[in-house]
Amino acid sequence: RNRNNWNAASTEASRFGVAINDLVRNREASVRDLGVTTTSTQSTNENTSAEGIGQVAGISNTSAAFRRKVVDVADRLQMDPTHLMAVMSFESGETFSSSARNRWTNATGLIQFMPATARRLGTTISELSQMSPERQLDYVEEYLQPYSGRMNTLEDAYMAVLWPSAVGKGPDRVLFRRGTRAYRQNKGLDSNNSGTVTVREATSKVRAKLQ
Question: Is residue 210 very low, low, confident or very high in pLDDT (cuts 50, 70, 90)?
Answer without folding.
Answer: very high
